Amino acid sequence: MMKKFILIVCGSFVGAFLAFLFFMFAAMIMSIGIMGSMNTGKGTANISKHSILKLDLGTEICERGGDEPIDLMSMMMGGGNMTPSLGLNTLLSAIDNAANNNKIEGIYIECNGVSAAPATLETLRRALMDFKGSGKWIVAYGHEGINQADYYLASVADSIYLNPVGAVDLHGMASVTPYMKKLFDKIGVEMQVVRVGSFKSAVEPYILEDMSDANRLQQEHYLGSIWNELRDSIAASRKLQSPALNTLCDSVLVTFEASQLLKEKLVDKLVYYNEMENILRSRTKIDKDDDLKFVGPEDLASDLESSVTGGHIAVVYAVGEIDGSGSFASTEEGINSEKLCKTIYDLMKDDKVKGMVFRVNSPGGSAFGSEQIWKAVMDFKASGKPVAVSMGDYAASGGYYISCCADRIFAERTTITGSIGIFGLIPSTNELFENKLGVHMATVKTNENADLGAMGLKLTPSQKNALQNMVNQGYELFTKRCADGRHMSQDSIKQIAEGRVWDAVTAKQIGLVDDFGGIREAVAWVAQKAGLAEDCPTQNYPALEDPFEVMLDKYMVTRYESRLQGEMGVLYEWHKELQRIMGRDHVLCLMPTEEISF
Length: 598
Fold this sequence. Notes:
Radius of gyration: 27 Å
Strand content: 15-25%
Shape: globular
Number of helices: 22
Helix content: 40-55%
Distance between the termini: 69 Å
Structural class: alpha/beta
Number of strands: 26
């Protein structure tokens, strides 16, 4: 009897505990949904007088607010951040509205380690510079330290404050590329490559043990050009000489004491956080015992994803790697070419859409998918509606392919573009199966090439020649698309192609880019061409996916990946890279994969 009683009590306890967990999970989902909807920028907050727009640079900046789901798995395991990434469009809208809102006194930038590429930061920095033109103030503060990306934005501020034991990290730019040939040799995988272009270095990590001279040359050029832009902008805002600032960057600046940073005029004053709050109270003319009135970007941004009823300009986002089949694996995020083409054709037929700004932030991907998107953009343009491309951090290889036919191409000075080239990458796992795993692949075929590409078999010389001819034809088509779109001869395009990656400043000089600017400049150009007012309404496309579905999908995928990572340990990243290669189309327009340190 006692045993049965204990079992009943334990069962009731377990049931109650599981119900409690379910309730907490449901509550978490609801709260996250509310946060996610807020992040799209509804602009519904009641703003009080003497308020401050607070930009907390402690997150990742993505293209669109609400486009990056919260990582539920990390949260439930005690890690991760409850705050989704901030959308660049949300930030730009908030800064613009803050300049025109008489209840907003100024902007407070809290430097907490922002994650964003140079071109995104350049767009945001230009918006901050425009805000200063309204006559309002900007101040920045580093509680623990100010990293390089933070400092690039903070340098526009009227004053930069730093904790007395804080640090500033300025060090220049670098790219780190893992070369994996030795690893593939050890595991018995041979990467069979066909390519066009001496600079088409995306395949190098799989077939070489170290960087080629051509690849090193192009990286030195575009990294040097981008760093010059960033360094000179910082120097101009801080009233420093660029050579002197460069010398400081070579001095392991992060190790400098705060007093030395003050002496070098990198910061204006050393204060603790409570003192920083008093400075803000003084600027907003509120009592020292009153709470500061902070508002976030989501509170001030316009409703960026709401429907527009009348004539408008469509802003179409193409972000990530380009998929050719329209069926990206669930672990990948990128451009679904089929869905994107359908979106563009729907907009072409919509009489309310008067023009399109095509926002491209992509390193490329499938050659087939790139061609399909190019055709959709061409048809939209042929319908008589103007098209401008706004390049983000990257618009390279396939990213340039889908951009080249636009009426006008805008890029930030720090955008990476070009990489006009094509390659095929076909892994051969013969050695892995036969000699490492002891698996013999027996083949029966009716025709000589019936087994082409089957189970990673090694290509015959005739098969490789055939694939090389296909890649050559793809390169001819790619360069013709660029030549026609840019109104240049194909020979001229080939001289600047060869798979070479360019910074946007050089790209403008050689005819690949028309103007410097971001989405706003592109919208203004399309509006003028369409005969609309410069401040005409815009609508973002494609529509964002349901946040609940996205979060649940990511939760299930993350559970699987977390378990796999635990089992494989340090080999997990190499496994993931090999899976990416196996899952891609074999013929690609893709720029090199490099980790750019900024």
